[in-house]
TrEMBL record:
Stretches the record annotates as Disordered: 1-21
Gene3D superfamilies assigned to the protein according to its UniProt record, in alphabetical order: HesB-like domain
Classification via InterPro entries: ATAP, ATAP_core_dom, FeS_cluster_insertion_CS, HesB-like_dom_sf
Domain of life: Bacteria
Gene Ontology biological process terms, A to Z: iron-sulfur cluster assembly
Transmembrane segments: none
Record domain Core: where: 21-122
Protein name: Iron-sulfur cluster assembly accessory protein
Pfam families the record matches: Fe-S_biosyn (PF01521)
């Protein structure tokens, strides 16, 4: 399977077919800010699901320059979000936001596929 890159401004069904993850405007701005600090224009935000955590699966968010064969890529106004083929079923329908408040600072993931999560919110099943 080849890498599929779609523009988030394309039809909604096309974006959902890519990986089904949405990125809020606040998260887009934070990613742009972090990329500017890195000083590199070849990085993408990669979101993956890995075994681990107290509930069985854990989210991984990191900048990556690689593009793998089974990656699904969606461009959100200049911010490319990459999900590997094995993580797509776990993340389809998930929305990513960035929270910056007195209580919490960081990326949050609202995932309708998560049956349960641990108290820390970093792990799910």
């Amino acid at each position: 399977m080849s890498t599929e890159t779609l523009d988030a401004d394309s039809s909604k069904s096309a974006v959902e077919n890519a990986h089904g993850v949405t990125l809020s405007e606040g998260a887009r701005e934070k990613v742009r800010s972090l990329l500017a600090q890195e000083g590199r224009d070849d990085l993408r935000l990669r979101i993956a699901v890995q075994p681990g955590g107290c509930s069985g699966l854990i989210y991984q968010l990191f900048f990556d320059e690689r593009e793998l064969e089974d990656d699904a890529v969606v461009n959100f106004d200049g911010v490319e979000v990459v999900v590997d083929g094995m993580s797509v079923p776990y993340l389809s329908g998930a929305s990513i936001d960035f929270e910056d408040s007195i209580q919490k600072q960081g990326f949050t993931i609202d995932n309708p596929n998560a049956a349960g999560s641990c108290a820390c919110g970093d792990s799910f099943s």
